[in-house]
């Protein structure tokens, strides 16, 4: 019961690096900037500059390459599909024919660029989630959204929902595993049968999971109330966000580098 | 302003649906029916009572989570019905709940402990100081950045307590804080709270089913049916065996032994509730008993009585059953975690099981118990060594087979080896009890007539009337009933081996007794082999005839419960994470004090008889 499967969301790597110590708002804005600029770039040279910046970020965040790989792995099929699609569906001078499909030089280039873009996109998001604790992330989002709360946007509630969801993901994963095993022990076959049969075999897992999630939600709500929770008003924060010199430096460097790359290429 | 908590004629009824009939409460939903009392500051009060007695409701009335439908609750003079005082009342009266997973709000320890004071608007740096000091008080300093989901049950509960302490409360209410924990976790929580009470003078209101915990209180309230039946020091309340039994509670073992001794003519005072008190009394009254050195006086017959121990001899259980039904040879299991870390859960475990045996698998949390039993029906496969269960061979014993079989090929085995998981009630999913129980048999591909027969039979086996209950929704049943329905769902597959993972955890004493009785019946018919994974040593002593002890994935003991408790010393037992049953601990303490009693007495009856024998033998010698 103490063993967990891969936790795709909780991929935060605890640490004290330069990137770890940045204000979460800085990193969220950096990621948005990274993604935006990335979509403006469509040349190899531009991607090269992004890659260089990524490497600097990895060093500054002390992020090992395999941690980055773990974030990319779940999306491998998507990338593969996009690459194949681009390889064969781009019109141009055929290099190789496979039946009705033609591999073109233009396709090769497009596939390379699109996979570079996707990989850089995921890597940029991973830099954020690997160096920012989920709760800090929630705090950052809350703080960035706060100006809009006057317009009715429930910034505190959204952040609280997010942090509670993050807190319960490992618990629910563990529970899913337990219920799956319990139903297997009662003779459920999750491994064979057609699509409909497989879908039906999920009912004995999903129903107990929902029932238990509702019970947990109920108990948690009572526990939160008992600890004096009455919404976001008047709450203080253990981690006060502070935008410091390092943040300013990082923002300026990123702006120059990323926006510069997008305009230059 | 009067300090402490004052309850005046408190009644509480849960609203049934949106509307309560005007002019009266729904009788069936009355949870608290007129409780009055005063809890002065600094008291250690324990609430006992069966499920449904109103304990949890009362706890929630104390900090305004619920407000009385009649009467009043005042905390230091503040009325819980006044919404303006609620925040202050909740600061003063902190609550810790039963399930550690469902009360931690944050992903890291320090953020969780900070949650309460954050709600109170405590600014930095006071906030950080409170978090650090609260964690230090519960012995969790250094865990500030730890992820809450990676902690043990006992650690999670200590974080929950720290979360309350950080609000600097005057009263700490704990609603069954230990009932879902293993013995190590229980110990941690009991010690932590006792220490807080001693050093901070905080009021403690502790709800429990455990009599050992109740013995530590200054005052005990016995609740039943929403009323207060007894109020007094533990020595008084816990000695009232008749009243306890009326509410389905068992008196502490020391009380039962004392009663037996008094009935046998041994003169002892009333009010003895702990083993230590009993030993002290006996030592004071029978110094002659001490004259004989331990070991010389052990000539008496071995402790024996009608307990299950040894009742079904190996191999007798099943007609035509010859040879073992389970054979593990150097069985090992290694979990591969993401990131390449390997966790050795089982290592070099060898044993055989004959049909009809009653086996307990015990050991500390994380010792590999659950991993081991999940091999028995092919949910897990050996990563080294091998295993044969009936005619299914796995690992190195499966010659010529490379790949482990799939679910489909394992169905028959899973029908023959029924595995009841921890909290099996959580796996119920169908709309009616009958449908749920029928799920297993249908998966085995049986025809509908046979399925219907098995549903009726299985419900009868767990002591439920099929006619009354088959059409009800599992969600409408009580926790104990749901657990029995889940057990029926496995029994309906007519397994020859019944494996249970922590069958009694989280049940109240009544539900626990019912379950143990039911398992005893099942095993007594000789058609079932029983394998129970448990921390409940009383269950081990009463239900099983053989114990497998796992420690860090290795099999370190294989023998009878009697041999385990009589021959293994205390140090080894704690190293293995085991706490002997009360009678065993009592006898061990008597021996340590020089009384010539045998150490292998497992039950209250055995212990009583043995003390009487030793005293008589001592008298003859004097």
Number of domains of chain B: 3
CATH topological fold name of the largest domain in chain B: Rossmann fold
Mean pLDDT of chain A: 86
End-to-end C-alpha gap of chain B: 63 Å
- The count of strands of chain A amounts to 2
Oligomer: heterodimer
Explain how this protein is built.
The complex is a heterodimer of chains A (265) and B (622). By secondary structure, chain A is mainly alpha-helical. Chain A folds into two domains: 18-132 and 241-264, no CATH class; 146-226, no CATH class. Chain A is 69% helix and 3% strand. Chain A is built from eleven helices and two strands. Chain A has a two-stranded antiparallel ribbon with strand order 1-2. In chain A, α3 packs parallel to α6 and α5 (76-89) runs antiparallel to α6. The radius of gyration of chain A is 23 Å and the shape is flat. Mean pLDDT of chain A is 86; it is low at 1-9. In chain B, α3 (109-120) packs parallel to α5. Chain B is an alpha/beta fold. Helix content of chain B is 38%, strand content 20%. Residues 17-27, 291-300 and 305-320 of chain B have low confidence and may be disordered. Chain B has a six-stranded mixed beta sheet, sandwiched between helices. Chain B has a six-stranded mixed beta sheet with strand order 16-17-18-13-19-20, with helices on both faces. Chain B has a four-stranded antiparallel beta sheet with strand order 2-1-4-5, covered by helices on one side. Chain B is built from 24 helices and 20 strands. Chain B folds into three domains: 5-240, P-loop containing nucleotide triphosphate hydrolases (Rossmann fold, 3-Layer(aba) Sandwich); 253-304 and 582-621, no CATH class; 326-559, P-loop containing nucleotide triphosphate hydrolases (Rossmann fold), CATH 3.40.50. The chains are: A mainly alpha (265), B alpha/beta (622). The interface between A and B is large, with 62 and 76 residues.
